[in-house]
Amino acid sequence: FDFLVFSIAANRIVQEMGCVRISLGDAIRYILEKQRHTILGKEMQEVLIKGKEILPETAVRCLEVALMNAKCQTRG
């Protein structure tokens, strides 16, 4: 239930303020799809090929990179 309330609030902020909403999952997919040639992308591919989970520290690194995306920089 708490996640649903957070999600609704986040969507409302995006609509009203024009902010970009990005989740850890979005950030991970961004790296795997758009940045797969980078060191971080290659590290993640190796982990996933072995059938292991992405570590929280790696997910946060993905989020940091995704937030440097021009769309996030120009929209807030």
Describe the secondary-structure layout.
Elements: H1 2-17, H2 24-34, H3 39-49, H4 56-67, H5 70-75
Helix pairs in contact: 2-4
InterPro entries: P-loop_NTPase (IPR027417)
Helix content: over 70%
SSE topology string: HHHHH
Amino- and carboxy-terminal Cα gap: 28 Å
Shape: flat
Strand content: under 5%
Mean pLDDT score, rounded?
86
- The stretches of 5 or more residues where confidence is low (pLDDT under 50) are none
Structural class: mainly alpha
Work out the radius of gyration.
Answer: 14 Å
InterPro entries: P-loop_NTPase
Summarize the structure.
This protein has one domain.
Overview of this structure, please?
- This protein has helices at residues 2-17, 24-34, 39-49, 56-67, 70-75.
- It has 76 residues and is mainly α.
- The chain has one domain (22-75).
- The radius of gyration is 14 Å and the shape is flat.
- It starts with a helix and ends with a helix.
- 7% of the residues are buried.
Tags for this model:
74% helix; single chain; mainly alpha; 76 residues; flat; 5 helices
